[in-house]
Amino acid sequence: MILYMLLINAAGLLIMLWDKRLAVKKRWRVPEMTLFLVALLGGAVGEIFGMYLFSHKTLHKEFTIGLPLILFLQVALYVTLQPA
Prior knowledge:
Blueprint: H1 2-24, H2 32-53, H3 61-64, H4 66-81
């Protein structure tokens, strides 16, 4: 589980870097649904770091609100499903 979380968050960080570079070069971009899918699969922390580290998607409300919301819901679900 820890290895998966490290890998998916590294992927989230790198996909934000890649999309930022494509945006700067005015090239075909990573679809926003792909960015959200990676976040939903557990990469929200990496994408949030990437968003602010690379100043990418920081003006898009769906990302500045959506990614932290996904992270909050994932943490809440994780805490809720923990055995007592």
